[in-house]
Amino acid sequence: MRVLLPRLLHRLHRPWTAVLTAVVLLASGFTAVSASGAESGCRVDYTVNRWTGGYTAQIKVTNLGPALNGWRLNWTYAGDQQVTSAWNASVTQTGSSVVAVGSGWNGTLATGGAADFGLQGTWRSSDPAPVDFSLNGTPCGGDGTPPPTTPPTTPPPTTPPTTPPPTTPPGEDCGNAVICSDFEDQTGPAPSGAWQFTAPDCQGTGTAAVDTAVAHSGSRSLRVDGGTGYCNHAFVASTADLSSVGPVMHVRMWVRHTTALPAAHVTFVSLPDGSQAGRSLRVGGQNGALQWNRESDDATLPAQSPVGVALSRPLPTGSWQCLRFAIDTTAPGLDTWLGDEQIPGLHADGVPTQDIDQQWLARTTPPRPTALRLGWESYGTGDDTLWFDDVTVGSAPLGC
Ligand code: CA
Prior knowledge:
Layout: H1 4-20, E1 24-25, E2 30-37, E3 42-51, E4 54-63, E5 68-69, E6 72-76, E7 82-87, E8 90-94, E9 97-101, E10 108-109, E11 114-122, E12 134-135, E13 138-139, E14 179-181, E15 195-198, E16 207-211, E17 221-226, E18 234-238, E19 248-257, E20 266-272, E21 280-286, E22 289-294, E23 300-301, H2 306-310, E24 321-328, E25 334-338, E26 341-342, E27 373-378, E28 384-394
Antiparallel strand pairs: 1-2, 2-3, 3-4, 4-11, 5-10, 6-9, 6-12, 7-11, 8-9, 12-13, 14-28, 15-18, 16-17, 17-28, 18-27, 19-24, 19-28, 20-21, 20-27, 21-22, 22-23, 24-25, 25-26
């Protein structure tokens, strides 16, 4: 195994390399474009995952010129793309002109050094990949001629990406969603009907109740007062059976909490998982940032390395936050959005990535969530008061 594993990982990575060094248009919606020239001082790999009306782009800029203390990448969109959010760089768009500026940990670029960042956007009529990149004013594509069109010699990854949510919120038309709750039908403080209090393993001082003082919509939400220590957890479970939701299960909730996520591991969403013999797929926090955790083997997404944690995000306190998940039940695909940002560290796909999903993909059986529980579970230290509202689970992508 000591020999086979690195070989396997190398093979798994190789298709990406091929995709990133050529132009390719694929039925799955991926487009990858390179613009480079040794004399021009920079190289850009621009990889797009598009769907109707929206796209994400992962961009790698490599500095082939003198070291840069502060970098700025400019390009022009030939279509009607509009950037809506970005990560690992500050991206602003004026008309069709876009500028990305590195900062903090990726603000400098040594000769031969590269920076990676990503963005999400919308488009209506067309979204061709840009070809006129320039780094600190120096064109990356030389004379601006289109990059080579040689197809890759190695096929791209066969795992389809999970479909990101639509960029137009569907409002509260829940369509065929299996869960669609604003808690307005709850009549008393004790959860009732489609929502039932549960303390799966043991019960202490944690509580959960319908709250009429704080709400994202209407006048009711679900309030959880979770205590520190394992037995002070408390959950409210939906009575809906989610075992046939899919193949990609989409979850959206609005959550508001009080205390920043602690260093210790905590959970606030627990999904009993048929592929873990009923143990849970969990969403919570560790090291101050959001994370996924698999109860059966305690794997985390992202890995809890400093790099991995930095690729996740804290859950802001004191305001309602839109949290969305896309859980592929047929392939190793998992995605997470906080507001409109797809969180890079909370993304699993078929290709192991160090600091992100390498540990997560050690288990190849896709999850099969069967139920939804909202609440609080602390395994060491960490308490919180949280509210949940406008919770939806279905087989179709969901807006905020
Ligand atoms: Ca409500």
